[in-house]
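Bench log. Compound arrived from synthesis this morning; before running ITC I wanted a structural hypothesis for how AFP sits in the protein. Inputs:
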Amino acid sequence: MAINLQQFLAKQLSDGVIDQQLCDLLNAVADLSKEINDKVTHGALAGVLGFAGTDNVQGEHQKKLDVITNEIFVEGVEWTGALAGMASEEMDHCLPTPAAYKRGKYLIMFDPLDGSSNIDINAPIGTIFSITKAPEGKIADESFLTPGRKQIAAGYVMYSPQTILTLTVGNGVFMFTLNLGTGEYILTKENIRIPVQTQEFAINMSNMRHWEAPVQKYVQELLAGDTGPLGKNFNMRWVAAMVAEVHRVLCRGGIFMYPRDNRDPSKPGKLRLMYEANPMSFLIEQAGGKATNGYQNILDLQPEELHQRVAVFLGSAEEVERVTSYHE
Ligand code: AFP
């Protein structure tokens, strides 16, 4: 008999893996994701496509769904009594839990809708979240700047043919598929392991001329296939939504890369550390994979700014170690 997410979390609670506040918070995230799923799957029918007419702190034009899903996420967790504060890709600064609600012991950081450029073309998108322990005292942006290694829980929801919630609370990676008929998330994969070796890579090749030498060298070797030093052929994928790339890596291995490039030297890559790279790296490491910025494990990086960007190389250990070794 398959168990649902509530039963899974209740077991983690009774086993002492998580506490009541984290159990309540994760159930609230699952619930709000169903509301996001409803908006996403109705698309034009719900009048939620297109641009919102505003820009976020990244200077990016916000899509209507970016704004809508951010509101759904904030309202979906602020009342739980589990949070001292939250931070989002779509909010310039953090949001301490409003005085109307009980302050809890955790912080949550999230990208409410990752893959915004996919929204209007009905391609995969997702929600990413990361949970850490809140420090004592007043909550400010600096309260969130802890290394990814200290995360308590992390996960994503992928909105695609299936809606799948993937979660780790530090004892492996588990996937739950949303049953649209009952509204329940059902445990469909557990104790996920990423193959050490792979023949599949993901990178946006249009940026090739902007990459640094180690990445140029590595990707040339991938393209050389069995005529080159790697001695085997590789397939390529690029979905333009990190959630979909990471989901594929968790399901069948691979290496996903978004390196820094010289288009804008002030930005060490496109992906954000706190609510994209850190939660995804926690999942990847929990599933036996590796995640680096080309030099260090992403989870060991000391964050300096809430919306800072980072280069990302993650997935099957053998290939991540190889491209990282080229940076030394
Ligand atoms: P958007 O949310 O702006 O579409 O960016 C998505 C993303 O941050 C990440 O999810 C993708 O892997 C990556 O950017 C795609 O970047 P490119 O559009 O440069 O391929």
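What the model suggests: Residues 114-117, 204, 240-242, 245, 258, 270-271 surround AFP (CB under 6 Å). Helices lie at 5-14, 20-42, 64-77, 116-119, 213-224, 242-252, 273-286, 317-327.
ITC booked for Thursday regardless.
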